[in-house]
Structure formats: structure tokens, C-alpha cells
Design goal:
The chain has about 525 residues and is of the alpha/beta class. Among the domains are: about 150 residues, ANL, N-terminal domain (Rossmann fold), CATH 3.40.50; about 100 residues, ANL, C-terminal domain (GMP Synthetase, Chain A, domain 3, 2-Layer Sandwich). About 30% of the residues lie in helices and about 25% in strands. The protein is built from 18 helices and 29 strands. Strands 2-1-12-11-13-14-15-16-17 form a 9-stranded mixed sheet, with helices on both faces. It is globular and about 70 Å long. About 45% of the residues are buried.
Amino acid sequence: MGTLGFWRLAQADPDWIAAVDPDGTEHRAGDLLARANRLVHGLRELGLKPGDGLCGLVPNGADGLVLYLAALQAGWYYTPVNWHLTGPEIGYIVADSEAQAFFVDERYAEEGLRGVAESGIDRARVFAFGQVEGVRPASDLTDGRSAAAPAGRTAGATMHYTSGTTGQPKGVRRPLSGLDPDDAAEMMTFLLSMFGITPGKENAHLVTSPNYHTAVTQFGGTALHMGHTLVYMDRWDAEETLRLCERYRVSNSHMVPTHFKRLLTLPEEVRSRYDLSSLRWMIHAAAPCPVPVKWAMFEWWGDCIYEYYAATEGGGTIATPEGWKKHPGTVGTAWPISELLIVDENLEPVPTGTPGTIYMKMMGVRFEYKGDQAKTEAGRLKDHFTVGDIGYLDEEGFLFLCDRKADMIISGGANIYPAEIENELMVHPKVADVAVFGIPDEEWGEQIKAVVEPAPGAAPSPELAAEILGSLKGRLSKMKWPKSIDFIEEMPREPNGKLLKRKLRDPYWEGRDRAI
């Protein structure tokens, strides 16, 4: 061990530009290191000790990066919070993660403050980036503190919340390693080396998606530990992506298929305007990529497009450009440190080419859903774990996905769980029964459709649909709202009450290949 890891690299070369904010502000590694060190001293004075957690409701950029770097060298769990959530949803995560400090950016002050109230966290442990009324500035923790490396450094970790299929999201928590933070960071670089990515300051990593996503944090953090410059985007835009790739000589990024679809709709003169010769490892995941879309991206960008399939919980596959071209539509073969197992309803392995539930295993990695042992065990089969996706392996061990986790909706790369939306809609007095599912959407992959059986006396109408949707305001983030509501006289249910969602969903998918 010894040459990688942000803190080592920053000491060796404090002038290296480690991060670029969405507004173009460049941050020297030495300055970020000093801020992270000061923050550790400040939070320790507040009483934080190894194993404690902190939450950040912050946009993409250097402020969130400093929280991450402080936690990862002080043995804390850092939870970046989804900024689309409402106050009660934010409060739940702050309380459930047992956060000992909560950082709120002024952009998200309104819902952030509702979250503070909801969570019951002590106001003295809440800090603001920018101006948030009644909240201490984050600089209170760092001003006048030493920029020297804190004593007793030990590796921390991120704890991301994954949306549950039932009820509230769960924190995916791994045991702390007890390693030196730089050694732990160097081990993390194995993730990117599996794609063939190399260390070096000539590289830049473009952060195209919100940093509260597990993969975005993992890939960006790992690229930083390899000496790459992190170039942050605020709101994703197709042409801006090309501009940043040219301007910062971007070599790698993490994207979702929706990005590809948007990029391909740019006029040819815009597409050919930018020099993209620096692109080497453009990695995508999170949703199925239509085969024609991926072929078109290969034609434009060349053989720099890699795909993987994985879960926050650990384990996965990689499809290299060569592997995918030989097996179009595949999500690849198992990582060197991962194993795949496809089983039937009786948990028995299925023959090659037969679809079944995908189980994965990652050597030496254990995790738990914080505070939910039953949920953790429910997904396990000995050392393997499933998130419920269905797929099959071909003769050469290439994995193909068939269908999602039973009913999950993937819209623009975000996982959306219908049960949560159904629970909120059922509360409405004019709703007798409701089903939520994904229907095809050219741009987003899937859009959210709700089918409602009106309560007796309530007549179906556009006005009723608008009233029902309006009732979600402040209770559910906008991205989870159904795009439209259809009405039905009677919901198709079995005598045992089981909803036959497929009966409702299939007509919308007619003439389309629902299999991914």
C-alpha cells in the first residue's frame, strides 16, 4: 500500500485541482484537505466518535465532498440525503441513521428544516452551508481549528439509504474496517481497476448524477482516490456534458441510459462540435439500456462504453465493450470477487439459459439493513444475496436481465417503489383501491401510472384525478408522483386479496418487449 488515497495525494501535491464545482470554481487538493481536517477537529469537539453518523443535505460540489472526506478519515458513517425528499422523509433518515450532526445547504433549507423538526435532532448539531435562518454556519465547526491531520485516523464509510419495497428506506451499513483511511481508499480503487481504469492526475471524472446515489459516490470517491479531478454537474444537460468533457479532458464518468438517449437526440452539428478524444471509460448502469441506443453510442464514442449490474448491497457484473458486442444486451459477467447464482422458486439452481431469481455474492463483504435483521436475512441464501431481479446466464456466463424486481419502476435511472405511492394515495377519502406501476416512456424508460377505483359516490373525472394528485403535495417527493391517473370500476384482485397487477399493466405494454 502506499501511493493512492486522497489524503496522501493531497499532501504530496497540494496544488492538484481535485474538484471543480458546477459553477466552475476550482478546488486545490491542499485546501480540501485542510477543510476536511478542520471539520474532523470541530466535530470531535462536538463529541463525535468512531462509529457515529452524520447526514448531509447538500448539492453536488466541494461542500459535500468535504463531509465525505472528513467522515472517511475519522471512522464515521456519512449519509448523503436525497434532496428531492420532503421534510418527513428527510427527518426519518436523520433519526434512523442516529446522525450526530446534520448539514443543510441553503438551497434545501425549507424541507431541511422540516426534517430537523421531524427528526428531533438537537439544533446545536445542525449546521448550514450558506444562509439558513436559525442554523449555525458550518464554518463554526472549522474556523480557528487546526488544519493538521487529526490524531487516531481510522477509515469511515458511507451509509446510503435504499428505498424499501415496503415502508421506509433502509440504511445499508457495513462494518468499519479499522484500517488506515488511505489504505482503505487504496483498496476501494479495486472497483475502478476492474474496468481497467488507471490512476493519474491526467484523468478527470465527470459527476453526472446526484451524489446521494450509492454508485455516484462510490465511483466519484474512488476516482478521486486515484488522483482524478472530480468535475461536478448540477443539473444534467446533454450539451453541457459534451462541453465539460472537452474542457476538462474527461476520461471517465458514470451515467444512466436516459443520458445516452438525450445525448443521441442532439443535432449532428452539436454532437460533432466537441472534442471527445479523452473519453476512455464511460460506465453506465442503473437501468436497462436498449440495444439500439447502445450500438449508436458505440458508433459515436467508440469502444469506451462499459456497463455493470450491481446492488448497493454488494456484488455484480461487468460488460466490457468487447463482451457486450459479442453478447448484445448482456449486463456482463461476474466481477472477479463476485459470484452469480440463478435459482428457481425452490431456491434450486436453474439450467443455463433459464430465467430465475439472481443472487449475488461478494467475497468478504457483509452488510446489514440498519435496524432490520429480518429484511437482511430475507434476501439471503447462505452467502448470496438478492434484490429480487430476474435473469438468466448464457453458456459463457454472461448475465441477461429479464424483468425487474417484481414491480419496481425505473424512471430516468431512479428506482421508484409503487407500494410507497399506493400507501399515500389510499389515504384519500375518494379512493377505494389503487394500483401503481410503470408504463413505457420514450424519454425516461418508464413513467408512473396510477389506476384508481373511486370510492362509492365519487365520479371519475379529470378534476378528481387532479384532486387526488394534489393530495400528495408535501407528503411525497414530486419525482414519485404518478404522471397520470386512470379510473377502473373494480380492481382485479384474487379472493385472497392479492392484486393482479399484471392484468392492469399488460395492456400498456402491448406490442412492446416488456422483457428488458
